[in-house]
């Protein structure tokens, strides 16, 4: 771990922060952007940016980017790219609509079917990339066209909807209050409190284990400040959500997936192997790692996540449209690179990607509230992406 | 003779490492000056300071060149003054022609339009100068490494070179190409080009160098004149001690047969109908070090890699036995499970994930060894890395150091650690001491002896016959994809090996 290298090499807080510039900088940037919009929106529009409703909206609007960015990180770490995810979102949404609306399938049958369709799509593309060594750019560019076309064909160019309530709840549903209080939602508060305790407990346990093995842990001050910021933000958001309609289902899905993927990438052998494969494929293969299968699996995984995102998008719009998901691949890829993944593969962290996606989402939301035109929004987002990558390259060369 | 270059008290510090510590170097006009030192002694860093890779101000000390203080801001500045470095890894564009490469960034053009006839004419002149008989339109990537090296020199000549720096120019060259290159260096010297050569090969230095400066641990140890140069003296100054024995002592006591390969045939992966290995067979016993000798292109690496998980070649046939049982080595995973390990000759491309730290590289071939049901234990991983760091004396401030920052010898120890952690019964070491200096070589040899003493079998593939003779219990000789002979330690000599190769070639022609 580069962070551990900084620990072992440099002493003191300054040296430590230097080694963690990217991670801590990202969190600071997110906080700064949120504060910036809070002030600006309050002054110019007289609107509360951090209102419960807006926070809920923020998550609902951006969940699909975060979910797909988790899978895209793995694809990019393995040294590939997937341009087809936007079309896959459209296609799986269309499949869900046809099954639910036209054929009347129940939601518990539709969801696994769509995830399986996503898996097949990922496998079909990953097969050519992994075993035929066709560049992923080409394969997924083809996939982007193919699945957009199939979406149009399946929907016959029409919007299909509306979905039954049960399906909509995938996106717009909330965890009901088990305590029956209603407002504030006690279930939400309890879950958030448990999550905060879990974060602190796992952080402390990791520190203790590091010390036990003689690894110098990060300075207590940095650990305390970072965790304070994270837990405070979590509690604030949680309190706001609880005082509105409770925890959106999507937020729970997001949280579970993020923890799962962070664990997978950092502490499992398969996760480690994907990083090694991206760092030096030949060396990884000669170390007994089945690199082809790993590439194949990262694409399968991407397909499943894209189909999950596709259903969430369809549920949110309450209909499946031929245009659903157009351009999503760009938001997802941008989030991964803003999150600090390397363009050549081999490095990048889940937490960075999630923060990267949130930065994009907050900017989208904030600029929309301010009434900034879509033209300027695109320019600004483009420049932010460029700046983040320049920052990385500058840091690496320094 | 006038002094062309004087470097005074050069110091250069990297985070955690003092790479250069008040190094002095004086180069006279028109001489060939050799620089010697162990890996990590600071040779390459010193040359990077000189050639402007590290600009003026990023190091301490002064460089006087041609009577003036050198204040280079970058490589272009130093090239404008005629200081040109040819790096170990060649900087040619493989898909472009010789002419395009020669004038890359320095095109024969007016107002941005290239004058091809003139460029070709100039190219021909330069190629003649370096003794290379190729068309200016030939694509560089299709030429051998030896010819590419000559093109690099021609490229330097195209820029009016006054001080030519060659960083281990013969490391990747065969014997006759090396000789050609050394001849060219002497010819350039006669034309007045001052040269600095970094080399590990003491016989080459003896042949071309007028003086030699020896570095150790980032400091100048001595500068010797031609008359003072002797192998013993150079080795003593390099390693800081007398090296009575170049190869560590070992009591050889081979046990039962561990690895046995029979009737091994391998075809070229791309060119159909080209057989690379023909009916090869050999065996290794417990506690035995077996050498595989042969010239470049004899098929030694191809043999080793095809056995190790069919990592090379197509249509592979033959049998591999481990401890008498036939084993499947058709994938690297299976080969590792069968108890094999292959330490590659190309550690940067094939052996290491350069941007990852030492820890992650060491555990890569045996992640299961630091994991429970697929979940890694960072602590256990670090303990393992620290153990190997101690056992192999890997010189690094921390096991979290990226391997790209290590010297060649230390990188090799990381690769060896990786394979030892996979606990193989038989290790195939392909050129284990390539690009490594005398001191680190001795350490690698010692490790090999320990492996044999632990009852493992070691196969050593090497181009350097003296090291095979010094280390091995038995030596197989390969030529053109076949094993053409087998010599015991007592029988083996450089002459016997060479005559086996040559007689095989003659027999084939007849």
Automatic annotation (TrEMBL), chain A:
Q: Which residues form a coiled coil?
A: none
Q: Where in the cell is it found?
A: Cell membrane
The domain of life for this entry's organism is Bacteria
Where this protein primarily resides, as one coarse class? membrane
The cross-references to InterPro entries, in alphabetical order and at most eight, read: ABC_transp_permease
Q: Where are the transmembrane segments?
A: 25-43, 64-85, 105-130, 137-155, 186-208, 220-241, 247-264, 294-314, 326-343, 376-394
Record's CDD domains?
TM_PBP1_transp_AraH_like (cd06579)
Topological category with respect to the lipid bilayer: Multi-pass membrane protein
Keywords attached to this Swiss-Prot or TrEMBL record, sorted alphabetically, are: Cell inner membrane, Cell membrane, Membrane, Sugar transport, Transmembrane, Transmembrane helix, Transport
Q: Which PANTHER family match?
A: ABC TRANSPORTER PERMEASE PROTEIN YPHD-RELATED-RELATED, XYLOSE TRANSPORT SYSTEM PERMEASE PROTEIN XYLH
What is this protein's name? Xylose transport system permease protein XylH
Q: Which organism is it from?
A: Paragemmobacter amnigenus
TrEMBL record, chain B:
Q: Which PROSITE patterns match?
A: ABC_TRANSPORTER_1, ABC_TRANSPORTER_2
UniProt keyword list: ATP-binding, Cell membrane, Membrane, Nucleotide-binding, Repeat, Sugar transport, Translocase, Transport
Query: Which stretches make up the ABC transporter domain?
Result: 5-242, 261-505
User: Which Gene3D superfamilies does the record match to this protein?
Assistant: P-loop containing nucleotide triphosphate hydrolases
Entries under Pfam families matching the protein: ABC_tran (PF00005)
Task: Select a single GO molecular function from the record's annotations and give it.
Answer: ATP binding
The record, for SUPFAM superfamilies, names: P-loop containing nucleoside triphosphate hydrolases (SSF52540)
Say if the entry is tagged with keyword Membrane.
yes
Q: Which domain of life is it from?
A: Bacteria
Q: What's the protein here called?
A: Sugar ABC transporter ATP-binding protein
């Amino acid at each position: 771990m580069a962070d551990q290298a900084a620990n072992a090499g440099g002493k003191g807080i300054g040296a430590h922060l230097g080694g963690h510039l990217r991670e801590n900088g990202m969190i600071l940037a997110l906080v700064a952007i949120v504060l910036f919009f809070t002030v600006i929106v309050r002054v110019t529009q007289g609107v509360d940016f951090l209102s419960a409703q807006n926070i809920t909206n923020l998550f609902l609007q951006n969940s699909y980017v975060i979910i797909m960015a988790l899978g895209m990180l793995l694809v990019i770490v393995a040294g590939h790219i997937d341009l087809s995810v936007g079309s896959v979102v459209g296609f799986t949404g269309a499949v869900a609509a046809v099954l639910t609306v036209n054929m009347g399938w129940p939601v518990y049958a539709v969801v696994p079917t769509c995830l399986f369709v996503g898996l097949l799509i990922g496998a079909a593309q990953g097969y050519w990339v992994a075993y035929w060594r066709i560049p992923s750019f080409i394969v997924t560019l083809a996939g982007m066209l193919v699945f957009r076309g199939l979406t149009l064909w399946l929907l016959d160019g029409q919007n299909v909807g509306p979905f039954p309530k049960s399906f909509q709840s995938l996106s717009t549903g909330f965890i009901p209050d088990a305590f029956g209080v209603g407002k504030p939602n006690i279930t939400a508060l309890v879950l958030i409190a448990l999550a905060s305790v879990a974060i602190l407990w796992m952080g402390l346990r990791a520190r203790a284990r590091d010390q036990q093995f003689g690894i110098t842990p990060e300075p207590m001050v940095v650990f305390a400040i970072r965790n304070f910021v994270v837990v405070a933000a979590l509690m604030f958001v949680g309190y706001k959500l609880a005082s509105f309609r409770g925890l959106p289902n999507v937020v729970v899905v997001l949280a579970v997936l993020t923890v799962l993927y962070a664990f997978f990438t950092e502490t499992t052998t398969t996760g480690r192997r994907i990083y090694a494969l991206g760092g030096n494929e030949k060396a990884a293969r000669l170390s007994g790692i089945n690199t082809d299968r790993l590439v194949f699996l990262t694409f399968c995984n991407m397909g499943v996540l894209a189909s999950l995102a596709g259903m969430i998008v369809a549920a949110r719009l309450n209909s499946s449209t031929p245009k659903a998901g157009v351009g999503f691949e760009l938001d997802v890829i941008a989030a991964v690179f803003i999150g600090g993944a390397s363009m050549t593969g081999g490095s990048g962290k889940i937490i960075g990607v999630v923060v990267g996606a949130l930065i994009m989402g907050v900017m989208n939301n904030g600029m929309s509230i301010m009434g900034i035109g879509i033209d300027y929004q695109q320019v600004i987002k483009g420049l932010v992406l460029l700046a983040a990558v320049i920052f990385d390259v500058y840091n690496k060369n320094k | 003779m006038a002094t062309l270059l004087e470097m005074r008290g050069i110091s250069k510090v990297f985070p955690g490492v003092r790479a250069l510590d008040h190094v002095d170097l004086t180069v006279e006009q028109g001489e060939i000056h050799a620089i010697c030192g162990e890996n990590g002694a600071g040779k390459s860093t010193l040359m990077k300071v000189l050639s402007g890779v590290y600009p003026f101000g990023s190091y301490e000390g002064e460089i006087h060149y041609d009577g003036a203080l050198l204040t280079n801001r970058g490589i272009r500045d130093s090239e404008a003054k005629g200081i040109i470095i040819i790096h170990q890894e060649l900087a040619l564009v493989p898909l472009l022609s010789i002419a395009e490469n020669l004038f890359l960034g320095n095109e024969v053009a007016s107002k941005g339009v290239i004058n091809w006839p003139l460029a070709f004419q100039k190219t021909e002149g330069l190629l003649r100068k370096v003794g290379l008989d190729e068309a200016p339109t030939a694509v560089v990537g299709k030429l051998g490494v030896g010819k590419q090296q000559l093109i690099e020199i021609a490229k330097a000549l195209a820029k009016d070179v006054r001080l030519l720096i060659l960083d281990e120019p013969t490391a990747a060259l065969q014997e006759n190409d090396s000789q050609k290159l050394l001849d060219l260096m002497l010819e350039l010297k006669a034309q007045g080009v001052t040269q600095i050569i970094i080399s590990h090969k003491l016989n080459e230095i003896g042949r071309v160098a007028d003086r030699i400066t020896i570095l150790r641990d980032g400091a100048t140890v001595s500068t010797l004149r031609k008359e003072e140069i002797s192998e013993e003296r150079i080795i003593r100054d390099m390693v800081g001690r007398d090296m009575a024995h170049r190869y560590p002592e070992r009591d050889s006591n081979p046990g039962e047969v561990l690895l046995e390969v029979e009737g091994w045939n391998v075809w070229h992966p791309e060119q159909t109908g080209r057989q690379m290995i023909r009916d090869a067979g050999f065996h290794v016993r417990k506690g035995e070090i077996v050498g595989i000798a042969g010239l470049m292109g004899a098929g030694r690496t191809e043999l080793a890699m095809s056995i190790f998980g069919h990592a090379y070649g197509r249509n592979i046939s033959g049998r591999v036995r481990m401890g008498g049982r036939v084993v499947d080595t058709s994938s690297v995973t299976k080969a590792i499970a069968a108890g094999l390990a292959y330490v590659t000759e190309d550690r940067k491309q094939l052996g290491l994930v350069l941007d990852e730290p030492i820890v992650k590289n060491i555990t890569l071939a045996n992640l299961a060894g630091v994991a429970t049901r697929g979940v890694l234990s960072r602590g256990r991983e670090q303990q393992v890395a620290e153990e190997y760091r101690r056992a192999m004396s890997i010189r690094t401030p921390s096991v979290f150091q990226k391997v790209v920052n290590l010297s060649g010898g230390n990188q090799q120890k990381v690769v060896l650690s990786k394979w030892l952690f996979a606990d193989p019964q038989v290790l195939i070491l392909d050129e284990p001491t390539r690009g490594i200096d005398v001191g680190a070589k001795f350490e690698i040899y010692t490790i090999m002896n320990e492996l044999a003493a632990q009852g493992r079998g070691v196969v050593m593939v090497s181009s350097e016959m003296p090291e095979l003779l010094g280390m091995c219990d038995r030596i197989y000789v390969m030529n053109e994809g076949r094993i053409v002979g087998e010599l015991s330690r007592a029988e083996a000599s450089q002459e016997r090996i060479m005559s086996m190769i040559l007689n095989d070639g003659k027999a084939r022609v007849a």
